Amino acid sequence: MYNSDAHLTNRTMRVGLVGTGYAAKLRATALQEDPRSHLVAISGHTTGKTAAFAQEYQALVINSWQQLVEREDLDLVVISTINRDHGKIVRAALSSGKHVIVEYPLSVDVKEAEELIALAKAKNKLLHVEHIELLGGWHQALKQHLAELGDLFYIRYSTVNPQHPAPRKWTYNHELFGFPLIGALSRLHRLTDLFGEVLSVNCHQRYWETETDYYQTCLCVGQLCFSSGLLAQVIYGKGETLWQSERKFEINGEKGGLILDGDTGTLVQAEGTTLIDLGTRRGLFAKDTNMVLDHIFHGTALYVTPEQSLYTLKVADAARRAAETGLTIFLTKES
Fold first, then answer.
1. I want to staple 93 with a disulfide (CB 3.0 to 4.6 A). Which of 43, 77, 174, 182 is the partner?
2. Does 105 sit behind a cis peptide bond, omega within 30 degrees of 0 on the bond before it?
3. For residue 8, how far is the Cα from the chain centroid?
């Protein structure tokens, strides 16, 4: 852990926020509600939207993220903007001596992500990659009931979001969002957190598009073989060529199955079927923010490390290479 002097001076963390979207709003609200933090400045992509956002949270409007990260009156930079820019903003913020919170992925490029983790250590600054999927009710239910399933052999995890019509926004842009399982890294990170090392990856993807940069639909299907022998199928799709919404996680073991379907959880065993509590998905950004501030001020452990996120990024990048080449990609200790 880096050596923080925040708990010695007991001062408020002065925060700059890059982004004005959904995640940024939740993050800004969490920062505003915690007395240990003060949201000083906000930078966004659109002038009018940024001005309204900053007024709501009584913060300064900064014309660019480059100007924001260089401000001397900031201790912490929170990055909640397009995936493509995560890496370069993290690098600039760390280089300017700031602690950093960044929504996943840390970068869309594995090599850059490795460099950023090394830079954070060299600068003795916090680098936290948000993975709130680990804090939610789904994940906690999975961890609680896995032992009841015996030896696991097959998982199917599907998140499909039909959109009619598909929005023309950055999450439907090849460059801004990135390869689907990198942009939506949480789908794989849930698995690596629970099941550990991945041995090999297969993947296929398809886009429906009428222009080069933006697509109307993407469908990505990955298959992970874990070192334990567990086989996992991951389906990620969104857009207007899809017709049935699905958010479902199925785990099959030799002594039972666990099915999480939307807000319903079911444990199926030979002796019967039991409904399980899946908790809530509300308040997770606030919980993440609170845990980061606890870590900075009191040195308490965080729930995820940048290295763990980096490992999942390597798995996602293997899926990208598998989709591009049609080959099975084997992961090694060095990959």
1. 77
2. yes
3. 31
The Cα 43–Cα 79 span in angstroms is: 10
Q: Print burial letters for 222-231: b (CB count within 10 Å at least 16), e (below 16).
A: bbbbbeeebe
Judge contact between 254 and 153, C-beta under 8 A: yes
**Block residue for tokens 């050596």:** 3
pLDDT tens, position by position, 185-240: 999 999 999 999 999 999 999 999 999 999 999 999 999 999 999 999 999 999 99
Structure tokens at 126: 């916090």
Residue closest to 304 by CA, chosen among 158, 29, 117: 117
Q: What is the pTM assigned to this prediction?
A: 0.94
Q: 178, exposed or middle or buried, with CB in 10 Å at 0-12, 13-18, 19+?
A: buried
Dist. CA 5–CA 11, nearest whole Å: 10
What DSSP assignment string belongs to 41-82? Answer: EEE-SSHHHHHHHHHHTT-EEES-HHHHHH-TT-SEEEE-S-
Q: Which helix (H) or strand (E) holds 279?
A: none
Phi-psi region of 229 (alpha: psi -120 to 50; beta: other; left: phi over 0): left
Angstrom distance (rounded) from CA 286 to CA 31? 8
